[in-house]
Amino acid sequence: MPPNSEYLAIATKRAEEKKTHVSFPQLVYPSLRDDGLRDPVQWLTGKAMDDGAEGIWRVHDGLYDLEPFLQIHPGGAEWLELTKGTDITEAYECHHLNPAVNKVLEKYYVKKAKTPRNSPFTFKDDGFFRSLKRAVWTELQKTPKHIHKRTDRIIDGLFVAFLISCAISCISKSYWIVMASYLSASLSLAWLTVAAHNYIHKKTNWRMYLFNFSLWSYRDFRVSHALSHHLYPNTLMDLEISGFEPFVFWLPLKNRFYGKFAIVIELATFGLIFPVNFFKRLILNFLRKDFFLNHYRWHDVLGFLTPVWMWVISGCSFYDAFIMWLWIICTASFIFFNIGSNAAHHHPICFRDGDEVDDVTRDWGLHEVEAVMDRRDINTSFFRVMTFFGHHTLHHLFPTLDHAVLEYMYPVFLQHCEKYRAKFRVTTQFDMVVQQIKLTAMKTPTLLEKSN
């Protein structure tokens, strides 16, 4: 939390101006949401300003000093390093299925938090999410022990295909072979980046580093995706919404001049996001003190190994290899973000507003289910699951589970959806494309009262 900041006064003022959470009007407007470059570090800083964690870690209404636990945290020290000074309740609940974890947490209790949580989500023992989590934990004991090898084979194959296609694009003298290999490399990189996201949610492992071949930092993605989007989907706390603004808007705006040109803007923007994320991070070295020391790691250079590989293996000039690599990066970015924007969330009925609802609080799991639209044509193929963000509702509820495990959880999930009247919805990939276009043109949100 920045020292001597007037963040409470600013947050209160924004709340009075009706700049409130989508769906949850009683919450303050997120600090720093609309400032600067809207990067992951800034998002964490703003969250620390609002969370009342007092520089350590907050879980529900308790404050915990997890510093002695950093290096022995089974998921890796990085998760705790990134979240120090924030409320990690949602992450703690959905990342830890084993009930024994609660006993470990108790050892590091410091005191009770002074302020109420800036979150509407509940985790009641008899509520939807915790009841489902207990059932999923039981089912996990029955799943095949080596089922995760299916996902390993897919991502390893995509990585090999990417390297081979890159090499051929520089070796061949045939125009058609060069074009085919260039497209193959672009598609392989886009799918590789999607598949690597499965590993970013897990404990530290070498396959998560493959994400960085896109020039995007997996460490940044852990914040923008795992800690922001996954925990607060389709709200103002979702960095995967605010991070696109002011170029792409997912939240309804009353003055939607942008909506008339949304498709053109998206098509022009998506192909540049991989390199833009790299340069945004580079610029922050000059804007923030010690940014390089605190936030750069050895794996941030992995993306630049690709043009070196293309140059060495083909014997062409480094300039030619570098230009071809830039084309591959931009095309992969275009494919990735078209997959992502049409994946599961950008549907008008997944965005709701609660300005006419008093004191809205709800089970976190129910919110996750209603913020997602699964796609039946994606979920029927495991390769498509890995490369098109499949089994997305279950993935949002239990992000640390391998994608190969998720299909085993459907029986208990559907039982709990019926019991708690959770709105699990399924559509098609084509419908998501159409509805995503409609969403960008929306001027008014769907009210909670009307969506229930």
UniProtKB/TrEMBL annotation:
Domain Cytochrome b5 heme-binding: residue ranges: 51-114
PROSITE patterns: CYTOCHROME_B5_1, CYTOCHROME_B5_2
UniProt superkingdom: Eukaryota
Molecular-function GO term, any one: heme binding
A single BP term in Gene Ontology: lipid metabolic process
Keyword set includes Glycoprotein: no
InterPro entries with a match to the protein in the record: Cyt_B5-like_heme/steroid-bd (IPR001199), Cyt_B5-like_heme/steroid_sf (IPR036400), Cyt_B5_heme-BS (IPR018506), Cytochrome_b5-related (IPR053100), FA_desaturase_dom (IPR005804)
Family per similarity comment: Belongs to the cytochrome b5 family.
Name of the protein: Cytochrome b5-related protein
Naturally occurring in which organism (per UniProt): Papilio xuthus (Asian swallowtail butterfly)
Phylogenetic lineage: Eukaryota, Metazoa, Ecdysozoa, Arthropoda, Hexapoda
